[in-house]
Every structure is written in structure tokens, then in C-alpha cells.
Amino acid sequence: MNIKALPLLQLTAESLMISSEKVAHVQLNNPLEHALLILVKSGYSAVPVLDIQYRFKGIIGKNTILNEILGLERFELERLSDITVERVMITNTPCLNKSDHFLTCLKAVMDHPFVCVVNQEGYFDGIVTRREILKQLNKYIHVNKDLFYDGR
Ligand code: AMP
């Protein structure tokens, strides 16, 4: 295979993403208890938050939840059922569009283990993970190994 057969930079977020139906998510009005259950059961550190129309609203992670219920001397577990996901989710995360190319995706996942793909109307399309970007990069470097030696 040559470089042309693997047009890395032409890959789009659409071809790299895990599509929405395979992504675990929680909803705005879910209590933190439900979110923590999903996170622990799935083994993910964070998942997207969607509204009832499947529009992307933010991200909720284990750390955010544990910080929220951290009291002076103990975790106040009873608060898990009183607080909604909407109140504590992180909303200032970057998003991608399906048509964004590889380098845009690479830049986006430098600071985040995954980034959400959202359409013009804000509907959730899926996620691009750092793992997938590294997998593609690894494949590209292996296939084009010769390019990375200077002949010495
Ligand atoms: P991974 O690439 O599997 O290491 O995933 C990195 C992070 O992306 C996970 O910790 C989750 O926060 C998120 N993630 C990956 N796959 C999924 C999925 N199917 N559903 C929800 N979140 C996911």
C-alpha cells in the first residue's frame, strides 16, 4: 500500500466516529445516581448528555459527580438522587462536524479522550475517540515506515 492508498488527511469525522446508537449517554433530567450507574457499569469515565430530542448538551464524568457530592469528611451519597445531570455537566467542550477532516479531529482529541460529533441543528451524531485517531495514525506510520527514516 502506498501513501495514496491511505489518504489519512482525507478521513472525516464521519468515518472515524462511533455512531450515536452505539454510544452510552444520559439525559439532562437524569439524577446523578443514574449517571454514575451508567458510568460505572459501562466502565467509561465520561459520557455525552443529550436532551429528549437527542440534541447534544454536555458531558458528565465520574470525577464531576464525585466532586459534587464530596462533603467535608465523606461522600454524601444521599445527594446523588437530588441533583440532576443538567446542574453539574460540563458544557464548554469542543464539538466536531461529520465533515471535519483528520487533522481537525486530531487537534480536538489532544485535550479530550473523546469529542462529540454534532450536526448544524445540534443533534448528536456520535463520538470521535482519541483511541481511534491514534489507531489511524499508527496504521499510517507503519504503512509508510520508509518515509520516517532519513537513510542513515
Ligand atoms: P476509549 O477510546 O474506549 O478509551 O474511550 C475513551 C472515552 O471515550 C471513554 O472513557 C468514554 O468516556 C468515551 N467512550 C468511548 N466509547 C464510548 C461509548 N460507546 N459510549 C460512550 N462513551 C464512550
Number of domains: 1
Structural class of the helices, strands and pairings?
A: alpha/beta
CATH fold label: CBS-domain
CATH class: Alpha Beta
- Side by side, the strands of the main sheet go 1-7-6-5
Q: How many DSSP E strands? A: 7
Label the overall shape.
elongated
Give the SSE map.
Elements: H1 13-16, E1 18-19, E2 26-27, H2 32-42, E3 46-50, E4 56-61, H3 62-68, H4 85-88, E5 95-96, H5 102-110, E6 114-118, E7 124-129, H6 130-143
This protein binds adenosine monophosphate.
The site of adenosine monophosphate has 13 residues, from strand 3 and strand 7.
Task: Please provide a written account of the structure.
- The chain has helices at residues 13-16, 32-42, 62-68, 85-88, 102-110, 130-143, and strands at residues 18-19, 26-27, 46-50, 56-61, 95-96, 114-118, 124-129.
- With 152 residues, it is of the alpha/beta class.
- The chain has a single domain (3-148), classed as CBS-domain.
- The strands form 2 sheets. The chain has a 4-stranded mixed beta sheet.
- Strand 3 and strand 4 (56-61) form a beta hairpin.
- The two termini are 24 Å apart.
- The model has no long low-confidence stretch (mean pLDDT 94).
- Bound molecules: adenosine monophosphate.
- The site of adenosine monophosphate (AMP) has 13 residues, from strand 3 and strand 7.
- Adenosine monophosphate binds at residues 18, 22-24, 44-47, 113-114, 127, 129, 131.
